[in-house]
Amino acid sequence: MIPGTAAIPTQSGVTAADPVMAEESTEAVKPVVTKDDASAKKKKIIKIAGISIGIIALTCVLLYVWPGFLKEPEMEYLTLIEPIIPTKTGQTGPGSPELPDVSDFRTVSYSRDIKLIFENKCVKCHGKDEPKGKLDLSNKEGVVAGADGNPIYVADKPEESLIVELILHPDDPMPPSDKGEPLTEEEKKEIIAWIAQGAEFN
After folding, report:
1. Tens digits of per-residue pLDDT, 111-147?
2. Radius of gyration of the chain from Cα atoms?
3. pTM of the predicted protein model
């Protein structure tokens, strides 16, 4: 011990001769983190991450799904009922198939002609069981209801009828060749003539 200095007791009861050592020994003890504190912190992080993911998912839904619901149901179909197939007197677009002349075609009956065509060539994909495009051609009610609520024909106007556009499509006419036997030229004319004659269900 240095002469002239007083002994300083430490926390352990041992006498310290150096005042500096005494100060270091009296430092505050750091708090100990318990398992409960760590678990609570982990839960908080998981909760924040979950909320963040939920916000991102909701944003994606609003950006990619909701705009479709803002449209009027008829708006998409309005573009279809414009003339989509050229007549003998004009063209509606490059590469469009020309509408065959059916002005002198025989009288076509739905029950005798059209129903048979649909049953033989179309109901494989457009029947009662899970019809593609929600189009059921197996009965009169389905034909009238159209595809997902949108008409597939306009009476007296085959050039504005979606079904005519589909059966005359130059690259992928309905029905597809891999789904069965395609429509003959006569069958196509029968469908077109039926619509041109008023699309009546006799």
Report:
1. 999 999 999 999 999 988 888 889 999 999 999 999 9
2. 40
3. 0.55
| pLDDT on residue 114 | 96
Q: Please, are residues 129 and 157 in contact by the beta-carbon 8 Å criterion? A: no
Buried b (16+ CB within 10 A) or exposed e, 30-65: eeeeeeeeeeeeeeeeeeeeeeeeeeeeeeeeeeee
Contact between 184 and 113 under an 8 Å Cβ cutoff? The reply is no
Task: Report CA 114 to chain centroid distance, whole Å.
Answer: 33
Report the amino acid identity of residue 20: V
Contact status, residue 175 vs residue 166, Cβ threshold 8 Å: no
- The answer to whether the Cα torsion of 183, 184, 185, 187 is positive or negative is negative
Number of H helices, E strands in the chain: 8, 2
pLDDT in tens, 142-156: 999 999 889 999 999
Distances 47 to 85, 99, 139, 189 between C-alpha atoms, Å: 58, 63, 55, 65
